[in-house]
Write a sequence for this structure.
């Protein structure tokens, strides 16, 4: 099974190969004494990728068994209310369907 980071990289390479702008949305934090500390100013629940196809879309990448966190569901709902395209994808094939 592929992990999310591998799937994200495959999607980014695929979209860029198609001439589309795409990148990872990075979350900030740091490791201190073996613990990950989140930046309190960071908006949690942001999706993994942002792409322009040509309109802007958000892509949350999950493994086949992956599920959205409550913060991710909240962000998905904000996108829905704003009319902003937001997709949960598990593979390049799903992204191909979205952009076709």
């Amino acid at each position: 099974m592929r992990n999310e980071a591998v799937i994200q990289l495959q999607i980014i390479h695929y979209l860029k190969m198609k001439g589309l702008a795409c990148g990872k949305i990075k979350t900030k934090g740091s490791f201190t004494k073996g613990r990950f500390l989140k930046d309190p100013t960071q908006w949690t629940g942001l999706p993994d990728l942002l792409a322009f196809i040509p309109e802007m879309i958000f892509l949350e990448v999950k493994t086949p068994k992956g599920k959205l966190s409550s913060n991710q569901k909240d962000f998905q709902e904000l996108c829905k209310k704003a009319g902003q395209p937001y997709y949960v994808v598990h593979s390049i094939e799903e992204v191909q369907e979205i952009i076709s």
Q: What stands out?
A: DSSP finds three helices and six strands in the chain.
